[in-house]
Specification:
Residues 270-293 are annotated as: Disordered. Keywords: Plasmid. With 383 residues, the protein is α+β, with helices and mostly antiparallel strands. It folds into 4 domains: 3-93, no CATH class; 124-229, no CATH class; 259-287, no CATH class; 294-382. Helices cover 33% and strands 12% of the residues. The chain has 9 helices and 12 strands. The strands form 4 sheets. Strands 3-8-7-6-5-4 form a 6-stranded mixed β-sheet, with no helix packed on it. The chain has a two-stranded antiparallel sheet with strand order 1-2. β1 (26-33) and β2 (39-46) form a beta hairpin. α6 crosses α7, α6 (294-310) crosses α8 (346-359) and α7 (317-337) packs across α8. The longest helix has 22 residues, at 240-261. The radius of gyration is 52 Å and the shape is elongated. The chain starts with a helix and ends with a helix.
Length: 383
């Protein structure tokens, strides 16, 4: 009898055997010779081992112990076939249902880590990432800056923490998928060093430009990843004709409101320019301004002196006075009458120029503009 048959007859399991629970037998495959000279499989059953040596041998041969629940025949063949496809299980154990081990789910991202491990990959430079894949904002509650980034390998948000309390920064250990949903597959960029080669100010400027290019309204109040709220809708560009039409529609209403608020000068008695019997808070009663009244003459005289002070100091005072009074009187009358002057308005223009000349000192022959201005200033101070 061969050594294999001796092991079966004596009840010692070989490495092809699988122990079952309870008083069941052990199924051991054997190779027997047929009449054709070929070897075929056969199954021999024997009693399970009862001694310490048999149980130890079973454990060493990767057999199930006698106290373990049976999971099916030929467990060793199934395990060997999964590890090496070149050794398939016997026909008698094919189709046996094996227990499936459930894959653990991805764990929640850690906010900090104390491990001393470092990834052999090169450090991640923040300048090489997109501004939208970096978060360097300050936490409002603690007023501390925390850095988060999108992992280049798994494309998920990962926190960045110091390495063992040093100045080095690295990513926290993380899985490639969402916590509690995806499988627990460790990302190769876990514990990877991070090179912070940009400042907080530079990142904010780049982030604002990136958000403007993306035309997104991003919520910057939260510390973690930004949430897209709304898309900016492009408004149609307004043309000058549209604005002119809007003003033309608004002008009549504004004029009616001004007319309703204004109290006519001859309607209500006034005291020092304010209506006596008018409503509370009524505006001042404005007297209409005429072409030759005292206010017009005083305003033109003051403007003429300012023009002489701004003119070339070597010019003749009479020339500057004549030139400025002619132009200022024309502008003043056109403003009051709200129309351009005509040849019929020449007498009124000449009379206004004469009144302003009478209000000012007459320039002496050959007097310069600087001397005339100084003389008028001394006269005003003396008065």
């Amino acid at each position: 009898m061969s050594s294999r048959m001796q092991g079966v007859a004596s009840g010692v399991p070989t490495r092809f055997g699988a122990l079952l629970d309870g008083p069941r037998t052990i199924a051991v495959p054997q190779l027997v010779s047929s009449e054709s000279g070929r070897w075929s499989e056969a199954v021999a059953r024997t009693n399970p081992p009862a001694g310490r040596t048999a149980c130890t041998t079973s454990a060493l041969m990767r057999c199930l112990s006698a106290g373990t629940r049976a999971v099916g025949s030929w467990a060793w063949w199934v395990e060997r076939a999964s590890a090496s496809p070149a050794h398939p299980p016997p026909s008698s154990c094919r189709g046996v249902a094996m227990p499936e081990l459930a894959m653990p789910k991805a764990a929640k991202r850690k906010g900090r880590t104390r491990t001393s491990r470092l990834s052999p990959l090169d450090a991640i430079a923040l300048s090489t990432l997109s501004p939208g894949h970096i978060d360097m904002r300050t936490v409002e509650t603690t007023q501390t800056r925390r850095i988060s980034l999108v992992c280049p390998d798994c494309e998920t948000w990962v926190a960045v923490t110091p390495h063992r309390g040093t100045y080095l920064l690295k990513t926290v250990p993380h899985h490639t998928g969402r916590a509690g949903v995806a499988d627990a597959i460790r990302c190769p960029s876990s514990n990877r060093l991070v090179d912070v080669d940009i400042t907080d100010y530079a990142w904010r400027r780049q982030y604002n430009e990136w958000a403007r290019e993306e035309r997104l309204a991003v919520d910057l109040t939260r510390h973690r990843r930004a949430t897209v709220q709304t898309l900016k809708v492009a408004r149609p560009q307004e043309r000058p004709a549209d604005r002119r039409a809007q003003w033309e529609r608004a002008v009549p209403a504004a004029r009616r409101a001004d007319a309703a608020r204004t109290v006519p000068a001859d309607a209500i008695p006034t005291t020092r320019g304010r209506a006596v019997d008018g409503p509370a808070g009524a505006p001042l009663a404005m007297a209409p301004q005429t072409a030759g009244d005292r206010r017009s003459v005083r305003a033109l005289a003051t403007g003429t002196l300012r023009a002489l002070a701004d003119a070339n100091q070597d010019r003749s005072a009479s020339d500057v006075l004549e030139e400025h009074l002619t132009r200022a009187a024309y502008t003043h009358l056109a403003t009051i009458w709200r129309r351009p002057l005509t040849p019929a308005d020449q007498p009124a223009h000449t009379a206004l120029v004469a009144e302003v000349r009478a209000a000012l000192p007459a320039p002496t022959p050959g007097e310069t503009a600087a001397a005339y201005t100084a003389r008028c200033s001394r006269a005003a101070l003396a008065a």
